[in-house]
Amino acid sequence: MSTNHYVVVKREGYTPRGERLSPLESATRLLSARLWPLWQGTRNRSAIRAGDRIAVYLAGQGGSTVVATARVASLGPWTPEIARNYPLDPDGTAVVVMHLDQVSMLPAPVAVRERLQALSFINHGTPKWGVAFMGGTRAVSAGDFAVLTARTLPLARAELQAREGKDSAIAQARALMAEHGLTADDILAAA
Q1: What is the mean pLDDT of residues 134-160?
Q2: Are the C-beta atoms of residues 137 and 48 closer than 8 Å to each other?
Q3: Do residues 42 and 137 lie in contact, with contact meaning Cβ atoms separated by under 8 Å?
Q4: What is the C-alpha separation between 153 and 14, in angstroms, rounded?
Q5: Is residue 182's pLDDT more than 90?
Q6: CATH code for the structural domain at 5-149
Q7: Between 123 and 89, where is the model more confident?
């Protein structure tokens, strides 16, 4: 079964006691708990499967960045036990919860605005490009996932090429490294 890629969106939230949290604080709490809720109206809710990869996009004030990745370990129903231990004010009842593993914070947030030209799902010159991230989740290609999560665009391209054909990817990665003055240590640091 192939791996699908999604962007999950997090806005500001509140603690169970009602204290306001930034999108980053809210996302960090969910990632630390290794879970992510999906609501009745969440786009792609029934398409997401165990093994799929997610990138965490922060929306709202000071957002528009991707800060983490994770793998969907399993999906299950929202239960009273999950609700009791949920690290945020749920503001309703989720339908499904994604249980996560392989959670990884990116070394630095990726500013999506700086990568718009490289994303296939946003029309170039679209002034309100943030609309593409509405609906709670967004399905993206492996290439777009790499663009949104790699430290640099050359590394994203090299990662995608490596998935498509190892021999040609090595040659292209070396060319990209030379073109952008990157070392093997740069690539290892981004991994």
Answers
A1: 78
A2: yes
A3: yes
A4: 34
A5: no
A6: 3.10.590.10
A7: 89
